[in-house]
Amino acid sequence: MRKTRWGAVVVATAAVTAVTAGCGTGTAATPTGAAAAPARPTEQQIAALFPQWNAALATGDPQRVADLYAPDAVLLPTVSNEVRRSRAEIVDYFTKFLQSKPQGVIENEIVDVLDADTAVNTGVYEFMLTKDGKTERVRARYTYVYELREGKWLIVNHHSSVMPEG
């Protein structure tokens, strides 16, 4: 079970949605003329974005990985000292990083759904990297900040740094 500061709010929102979905009108009850508030994503929906990113890594295609980032995203990568601020810079990083055939596994994650359009996934992950036929394990802290843009969850900020104790 993932822990968040917003868990109770997400559960309450889901319960209201479930109740109003069965009321026969097909719309949530709102004051006359008021638009229904957009539904907040669940913790599970946000957590599922990492496996999508990891699957993009497995394709070996840096363009495919970069497609998961917003055009104005910032990447503070694990194995580079360079801050990446554009799609071209993000593609450049992943072109090099993907040569090591990375496979990531989350060890510990905390998902915070901030609102209907913004969420954060932070924690610790481990990557298996292959260099010169040898496999190396790299544990790192990470933070992904996601925004819902034009119906698609995109990474707007991604920070990853090697754990100080290894």
Automatic annotation (TrEMBL):
Span of the signal peptide: 1-21
Superkingdom per UniProt: Bacteria
Acetylation in keyword set: no
Annotated Calcium/calmodulin-dependent protein kinase II association-domain domain residues: 43-164
CDD domains per the UniProt record, alphabetical: NTF2_like (cd00531)
Alphabetized UniProt keyword annotations: Signal
A Pfam family assignment: CaMKII_AD
InterPro entries: Ca/CaM-dep_prot_kinase-assoc (IPR013543), NTF2-like_dom_sf (IPR032710), Steroid_delta5-4_isomerase (IPR011944), UCP028470_steroid_isom-rel (IPR016887)
A GO term, aspect molecular function: calmodulin binding
Protein name stated in the entry: Calcium/calmodulin-dependent protein kinase II association-domain domain-containing protein
Organism encoding this protein: Amycolatopsis tolypomycina
